[in-house]
Amino acid sequence: MSQPAHHVHRARLYKLASLAFDRPTGDLREAMIADEFDGQLIESAAMCGDGNLREHAERVAAESPDGAAEIDDHYSTYAALFGFEQGGEIKQYEIEYRPGTLVTSTDTLADIAGFYGAFDLSLEDGNRERVDHLCVELEFVSHLALQTAYLEESGDETGVDVVTNAQADFLEDHLGRWLPQFRDTVQAESDAPFYHALADLVVALVEADADWFDVEPTVFEETPPSPLEGVTEPGDESDFRCGTCGTTPSSTDRQQPGTEQFPIGDRDGPDRRPR
């Protein structure tokens, strides 16, 4: 059954989650101050028709910062938990939670990049972030969800099958496998209610989508040592961090329905806009 509106709201939830797990600067800061972030999050969770998802969204909204001073404090919290500049201990990269050697991790990164490349997506020019970063993976699923909405609205059944299979495979092989471990790490290593609630929401969203696409991701049971241990010198991770999260469509990609309502992710300041 064609449900383009459902996929638009799925897309917005993934997009908002990607923004919220990024540095709270630029448009996200403005959206939080104006309560647009909270309103869009609750609206889209409700429109997905999942009571559990809506409860998680309402909890995130209840814990989100409101004023400029609170958001300044929120930035400091983000930096302490996730930011490389303050030695944040919580990693936002898939291969940090995936068992295996550096070789298998390289294969994982290649597989993720292959998903992006299949849809003519790439990281922005100058971006030094890895393809397995949480914000990038969430934004990728958001992009596919919007494509699904567009293709369903256009009656393109073949196209719908392609993007549906891609979402199912990506959730089963990637996001669905490591997000529960990431959520557990956030719960155990931070006392930030907003990020606790946000991590719960993202896991609930991926679980709901796994049911929707009829897949069962095999969740990693424990967090292995970093596959980069012993390869880089202590503190030498500059090639694997920093930069702008997000996948960038090629200039030929058309605007998808509903994207004009989304705040735009921005790790480098408020001036970046879609090309």
In short:
Residues 265-275 have a biased composition (Basic and acidic residues). Residues 245-259 have a biased composition (Polar residues). With 275 residues, the protein is mainly alpha-helical.
SS class: mainly alpha
Determine the number of helices (DSSP H or I, runs of at least 4 residues). Answer: 9
CATH hierarchy class name: Mainly Alpha
**Overall pLDDT:** 83
Q: Tell me the count of domains.
A: 1
Q: What is the quaternary state of this protein?
A: single chain
Strand fraction: under 5%
CATH superfamily: TorD-like
Residue runs with pLDDT of under 50 for 5 or more positions: 234-245, 250-275
Organism: Halosolutus amylolyticus
Protein name: Molecular chaperone
Pfam family, one: Nitrate_red_del
Region (Disordered): 219-275
Description:
With 275 residues, this protein is mainly α. The protein has a single domain, classed as Orthogonal Bundle (TorD-like), CATH 1.10.3480. It is built from 9 helices and 2 strands, in the order H-H-H-H-H-H-E-H-H-H-E. Helix 1 packs antiparallel against helix 3, helix 4 runs antiparallel to helix 9 and helix 7 packs antiparallel against helix 8. It is globular and about 50 Å long.
List its traits.
275 residues; mainly alpha; TorD-like; 2 strands; disordered C terminus
What is the fold's blueprint, element by element?
Layout: H1 4-20, H2 26-33, H3 36-47, H4 51-63, H5 68-81, H6 102-118, E1 121-123, H7 134-154, H8 157-189, H9 193-212, E2 247-249
Antiparallel strand pairs: 1-2
Helix pairs in contact: 1-3, 1-7, 1-9, 3-4, 4-9, 7-8, 8-9
Keywords: Chaperone
Protein name: Molecular chaperone
InterPro entries: DMSO/NO3_reduct_chaperone, TorD-like_sf, TorD/DmsD_chaperones
